[in-house]
Q: What sequence folds into this?
């Protein structure tokens, strides 16, 4: 059984606990069938990549592709599978729809039968992720007809719609006031905007920072805190990184309009909803491009210019 | 040990014997099946304590109190006649009979170094200082004839202090490399995460499944740890001690597990199943001999370059074909001698319940071991012969419903079920980057997978549409159907979101009369192939029993709808896309707006 089996299992169950998810990863013996290259830890630089456990790689990829929501987004459960949907985007003269969310054998059969007359369908195997199913239609109406007949929901211009619904990284809605941890046992690190990695720091530095991202670790506990002139906020690590980068006016994103590729350093992966928008442009996970003397890059392919521009705006970067 | 053996021979219940000696029942069971102290003879019958069941600690406590009271009365009588008081050393609770046998056990310990029969006792400061050797694994011997034991009396949890086992897992990775980890067992009363002490160093265990903690790769030499064993301890907030034990041994048998990936340590090899055998380098020749005796194909040898600890050898692909009786004596090589027991295995497929599988993904049914002569295999009541792969297949065994498999007196059942076939979207994230949601209700679109949805505060039936940033108002076919879009001031976005509750047809700029005619456009949003359905309605939807405020708002909206259309007409904005049929539709809208506007005046 591969990750496809896991998505079928999740779809059959609808929602569940984290323990059930992990048990399913074990029981379906995915580790023995998936040819896994360990995914890079989101918060680590490529130089000190730690391999993620398979269940974490699967969870992150399911979440990035929009097949399921986990924890904060799972509406009371630890995970919940999203309804079967077509995420449509115009690509040149054609329209591309990425199949996301719940799957069942019956739904997939129905989809293949319907698409036969209205467009083309392709299945792309992905690493540590269910196969990506893409439908190519001549126009939006064709994709709408496929969605209607297959009993799926349709989201037009999903990448732009998602990005337009997100706050920018410096918006106060994405951080919460938080106390600075007390005690000498905490291991304190600061995110360096020069090396794009965590460096050893002190509590005093956190108190004095005009805008600094700090990580406090003690045993298995870890807090990522944004320190702004004595005020401290809890913030998602990836959001915090882009906040301090924008504060230092440091641009780390690049966009190549000719190849439509959007690149970020591997240690500065975009927050996951931004990443979801980028992935839904093609249905493909980012490609990790190692570099011998510098930090590796994550390259997102088939990103239209408006999407790249808006993603950069949300991240307070200047890619274009 | 000899007394315990004699008690077993007398037919005493194992739980009674364990209670009498203050030991764990599993150890008495090991004694019963000859796994430990196989050579120690049973004691004479006259040395035995009375048979169980024994009184509970509560009853003993009452008896001690009564004896103390009686002794006080006796001493009072003795003092009346001038005799000195009598003294008795009353045993402390929970001791007594067990202590009487302590010497016997201690003597036997000397005979069998490495086994601590009290290994399940709570660790205390003294025992930690002494650092007893970790328990050594006791290999299985030949099984004694099974006895029917009396029902076990219930014992409160506090009286138990049982060690949970630590299993060994091997995961095959890329390029023939493998990863060896330790997998501690979990019981329901254990928390999902717990800090344990491993050689005085703290280590955190987090739950992997209901019955397992996540694998750990402890620091230090894993080879020594496998050979010598290890014990981890933890204390729960309620003071309960927990303990995990890996019994050191020279040979490990790892096999497939129904709930876990990779190969997990099991008691002994199973007929027809693939295994990985780990053995110390010293034991390798013996292991190879027994593996060839049990009919296994030539295994692949794994050494340290494949990830096996130094001093150990792995044998991958051990598949026993011949059942072999275990040696009578306790011999570690017995773990490589498969029993002939027949078992029904349900494996693979997609299991969605305890014994239910998803339609289209049924389990494979296989028989392990050897069938007794005359035993018939039945699947759903039909006789079935295993195919070349050992699987049992019959028509309908993968169809929806309950199914049963039996062979002789062994049977299993499973069901095939449909999974969910309907899924609803929900508001997963609202104005958030995904890690946590903003507090309070916010009138912003929400995200669920790839879907962007109208917030719950929006008017019923609202849906999200994306507009170019130059467009501000969305118009529908019915007068009054007009809504503004959310123009993001915080980012330089070229698009905005509108939440119409109607089918959108047109989008107009914000300040139509002052817009730049060279750039501003009137956007057609409808489906060009369905133009007939988009013709303007001549009348607004009538409100049912409206309040004055609602009526006023409704009238204002109709006026705004007409005004927007008429302003676009006055300004003469170009229509996007510039198709003649769209232009004709726009003329119809202008006529309609003009007529309604006159009526409003």
A:
């Amino acid at each position: 059984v591969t990750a496809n089996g896991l998505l079928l299992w999740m779809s059959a169950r609808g929602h569940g606990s984290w323990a059930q998810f992990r048990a399913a990863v074990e029981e379906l013996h995915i580790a023995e069938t998936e040819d896994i290259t360990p995914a890079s830890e989101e918060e680590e630089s490529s130089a000190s990549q730690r391999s993620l456990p398979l269940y974490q790689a699967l969870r992150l990829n399911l979440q990035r592709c929009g097949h399921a929501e986990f924890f904060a987004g799972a509406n009371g459960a630890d995970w919940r599978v999203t309804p079967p949907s077509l995420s449509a985007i115009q690509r040149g003269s054609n329209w591309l729809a990425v199949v996301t969310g719940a799957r069942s054998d019956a739904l997939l059969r129905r989809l293949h039968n319907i698409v036969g007359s209205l467009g083309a369908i392709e299945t792309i195997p992905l690493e540590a992720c269910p196969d990506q199913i893409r439908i190519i239609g001549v126009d939006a109406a064709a994709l709408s007809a496929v969605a209607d007949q297959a009993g799926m929901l349709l989201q037009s211009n999903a990448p732009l719609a998602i990005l337009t619904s997100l706050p920018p990284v410096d918006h106060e809605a994405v951080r919460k006031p938080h106390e600075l941890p007390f005690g000498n046992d905490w291991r304190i690190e600061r995110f360096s905007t020069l090396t794009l990695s965590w460096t050893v720091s002190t509590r005093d530095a956190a108190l004095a920072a005009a805008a600094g991202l700090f990580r406090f670790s003690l045993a298995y506990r870890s807090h990522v805190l944004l320190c702004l002139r004595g005020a401290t906020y809890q913030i998602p690590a990836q959001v915090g990184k882009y906040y301090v980068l924008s504060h230092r006016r440091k641009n780390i994103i690049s966009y190549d309009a000719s190849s439509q590729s959007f690149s970020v350093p591997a240690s500065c992966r975009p927050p996951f909803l931004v990443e979801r928008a980028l992935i839904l442009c093609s249905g493909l996970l980012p490609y990790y491009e190692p570099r011998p003397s510098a930090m590796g890059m994550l390259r997102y392919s088939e990103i239209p210019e408006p999407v790249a521009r808006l993603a950069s705006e949300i991240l307070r970067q200047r890619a274009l | 040990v000899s007394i315990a053996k004699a008690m077993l021979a007398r037919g005493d219940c194992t739980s009674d014997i364990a209670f009498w000696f203050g030991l764990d029942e599993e150890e008495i069971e090991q004694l019963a099946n000859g796994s430990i102290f196989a050579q120690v003879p049973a004691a004479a019958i006259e040395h035995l304590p009375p048979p169980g069941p024994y009184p509970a600690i509560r009853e003993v406590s009452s008896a001690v109190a009564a004896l103390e009271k009686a002794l006080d009365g006796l001493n009072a009588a003795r003092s009346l006649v001038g005799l000195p008081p009598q003294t008795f050393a009353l045993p402390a609770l929970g001791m007594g009979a067990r202590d009487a046998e302590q010497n016997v056990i201690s003597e036997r310990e000397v005979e069998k170094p490495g086994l601590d029969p009290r290994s399940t006792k709570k660790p205390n400061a003294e025992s930690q200082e002494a650092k007893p050797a970790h328990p050594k694994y006791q290999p299985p011997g030949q099984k004694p004839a099974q006895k029917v034991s009396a029902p076990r009396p219930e014992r409160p949890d506090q009286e138990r202090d049982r060690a949970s086992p630590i299993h060994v897992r091997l995961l095959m990775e890329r390029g023939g490399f493998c990863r060896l980890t330790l997998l501690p067992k979990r019981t329901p009363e254990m928390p999902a995460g717990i800090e344990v002490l491993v050689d005085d160093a703290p280590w955190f265990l987090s739950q992997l499944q209901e019955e397992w903690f996540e694998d750990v790769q402890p620091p230090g030499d894993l080879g020594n740890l496998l050979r010598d064993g290890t014990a981890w301890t933890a204390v729960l907030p309620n003071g309960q001690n927990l303990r995990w034990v890996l019994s050191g041994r020279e040979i490990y048998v790892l096999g497939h597990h129904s709930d876990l990936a990779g190969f997990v340590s099991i008691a002994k090899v199973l007929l027809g199943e693939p295994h990985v055998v780990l053995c110390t380098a010293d034991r390798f020749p013996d292991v190879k001999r027994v593996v060839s005796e049990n009919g296994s194909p030539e295994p692949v040898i794994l050494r340290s370059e494949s990830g096996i600890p130094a001093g150990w050898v792995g044998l991958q692909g051990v598949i026993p074909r011949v059942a072999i009786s275990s040696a009578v004596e306790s011999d570690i090589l017995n773990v490589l001698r498969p029993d002939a027991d027949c078992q029904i295995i349900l494996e693979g497929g997609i299991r969605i319940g305890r014994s239910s599988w998803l339609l289209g993904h049924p389990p494979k049914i296989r028989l392990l071991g050897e069938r007794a002569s005359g035993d018939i295999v039945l699947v759903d009541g039909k006789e079935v012969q295993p195919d070349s792969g050992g699987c049992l297949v019959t028509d309908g065994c993968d169809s929806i419903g309950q199914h049963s498999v039996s062979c002789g007196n062994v049977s299993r059942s499973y069901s095939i079920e449909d999974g969910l076939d309907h899924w609803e979207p929900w508001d997963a994230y609202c104005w958030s980057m995904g890690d946590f949601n903003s507090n309070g209700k916010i009138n912003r679109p929400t995200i669920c997978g790839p879907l962007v949805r109208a917030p719950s505060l929006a008017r019923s039936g609202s849906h999200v549409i994306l507009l170019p940033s130059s467009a501000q108002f969305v118009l529908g076919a019915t007068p009054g159907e007009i809504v503004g879009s959310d123009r993001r001031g915080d980012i330089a976005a070229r698009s905005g979101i509108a939440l119409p509750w109607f089918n959108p047809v047109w989008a107009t700029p914000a300040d139509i009369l002052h817009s730049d005619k060279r750039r501003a456009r009137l956007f057609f949003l409808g489906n060009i192939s369905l133009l007939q359905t988009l013709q303007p309605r001549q009348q607004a939807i009538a409100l049912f029993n409206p309040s004055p405020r609602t009526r006023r708002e409704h009238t204002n909206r109709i006026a705004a709808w007409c005004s927007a259309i008429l302003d676009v007409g006055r300004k003469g904005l170009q229509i996007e896309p510039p198709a003649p049929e769209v232009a004709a539709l726009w003329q119809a809208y202008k006529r309609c707006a003009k007529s309604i506007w006159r009526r409003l005046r």
Remarks:
- The two ends of chain A are 43 Å apart (CA to CA).
- Chain A touches chain B through 80 residues (CB under 8 Å).
- The first helix of chain A runs from residue 3 to 13.
- Confidence is low (pLDDT under 50) at residues 35-50 of chain A.
